[in-house]
Amino acid sequence: MSVTALKKKTSIRWKIGKYLFVFAAGLIGLLFLFQVVLLEPMYQRSKVQSVRNIGNDIARAIDSEKLDDVLFLTMMQNDACVMIRYDSAPVTIQNQSCTAFSDLGNEAINEMIGFARLSRNKSYMMINENSYDALDGSEPLKTIYYTRIVQGNAGNAVILVSSNISPLSATTRTLTVQLMYISGIILISVCFLTFMIYRGIASPLSRINEAAKSLPKGTYQIDPKSNRYREAEELNTTLSEAAADIQKADKAKRDLLSNVSHDLRTPLTMITGYGEMMRDLPGEKTDENLQVIIDESKRLNNLVNDLLDLSRMQENKITLNEAPFDITEMIETEMRKYDVYHYQDNFDIDVHLGDHVTVNGDRKRIEQVFNNFVINAINYSGNSRHIIIREIVSDKNVKIEVQDFGEGIPEDKLNDIWDRYYKVDKKHVRTTQGSGIGLAIAREILDLHHLQYGVQSKVGEGSKFWFIMPVLKS
Ligand code: ADP
């Protein structure tokens, strides 16, 4: 990522501050909307609803003996005035202290009753503004009037309910002032919270970033102060693992370079030495000496080929030539090459083969893996010079095992031996055969084939390398 791209990104502090500020602004906005803007309409709505409810409650109780109780309760609880007029008898029931109806006047009352009679549900709701009641600059007093006409036993009854809507401007003013204080407090809290969250989240990140600058050198020193929360701790662990991997890769690179140069130099020295000897000493121009030059050239060729092969495999540049082949026959053929070890060096190589089975794979590559296991078994079999090759055939699979009874491999090194140029014995010993990257190549080939493979080993007792291939149904 370029420096300019880095500069354009907003700091986490501003991001946190921005989100918290938006949240706080939203909260204050909602408070303002409900406490100030919508307070009056909502209050008026609920008041209208309660007046309507009173009217309806009385309408339901009109001819029952519960009427008195309902009247008493509704008037007491809701601070409402009620008047009932029966058409048949000119009786008016009204709570004494109310002036709402007399304030309105008979004419207006009769008009309301007229509207109620005309309406479909025989009711009429009206809000009256008594502007003359208002003092200078203050809000006019609003009164709700609800008229409902019901059919009783003794003819029509007109129920009139009225209630005042208390002016809320004073309350709204108080709430506005309060909200301003609350907004101030919230704003200060947002700044404080931003700072605290920034300290908690970003400062460990900055520390980690600072420490990670030494990663290219393969070192990473965990700062205990950066371990404040789980994610930061995990990041620290990942980075220190990465540092260890970088160190390992760096070491492997150095080892590879020194081992490759060593392995290249030895045959080259031999070739030059023998060549010069044959040039200078006429009696040394023998077939044996020429053979040494040829053998060493072949070894050189093998090493260079193996190195090229491995790097092509690791870059996924090779494709497998997969086809069915008889793996039992492959082992038989390959093992003939090793007869020389039996006759010349007294090796005892037991080969236990099962029934002939066919597998699918790149025969040349599988041969390469098999030979690598066998060559290693020969190289590391020590004084025992005993090797067992087994082909174990089951229903679905065939397992190929190469076992030696040599020095064995320490348990903690079992994973590392598959790495390029890893050596259990650090001092580089030039083996009789093999380029020193045999197991790394074997791993690539087996992985490319998606096969199971592994090694069991015990120091002093020997090792058993194996891989499993699915058997093709014939
Ligand atoms: P090399 O040419 O060094 O054998 P390999 O990649 O084939 O390279 O093996 C890597 C390392 O694994 C060896 O250097 C050796 O330390 C260990 N190793 C491999 N096979 C055996 C074995 N059969 N017994 C003991 N150690 C082994």
Tell me briefly what this model is.
By secondary structure, the chain is of the alpha+beta class.
Architecture blueprint of SSEs:
Elements: H1 3-8, H2 12-37, H3 39-60, H4 67-78, E1 81-86, E2 92-94, H5 100-104, H6 106-118, E3 123-130, E4 141-152, E5 155-165, H7 169-212, H8 230-280, H9 287-314, E6 323-326, H10 327-336, H11 339-345, E7 348-352, E8 358-361, H12 363-379, E9 386-393, E10 397-404, H13 438-448, E11 452-458, E12 462-470
The protein binds adenosine-5'-diphosphate.
**Strand fraction:** 15-25%
Shape: elongated
How many β-strand runs? Answer: 12
Radius of gyration: 49 Å
N-to-C span: 56 Å
Q: State mean pLDDT (0 to 100 scale).
A: 85
The biggest beta sheet is recorded as: 5 strands, antiparallel
Structural class: alpha+beta
Q: Could you name the ranges where pLDDT drops below 50 across 5 or more consecutive residues?
A: 1-5, 428-433
Note the total helix count. Answer: 13
> What molecules are bound to this protein?
adenosine-5'-diphosphate
Can you list the strand order of the major beta sheet? 2-1-5-4-3
Helix percent reads 40-55%
Question: Order of helices and strands, N to C?
Answer: HHHHEEHHEEEHHHEHHEEHEEHEE
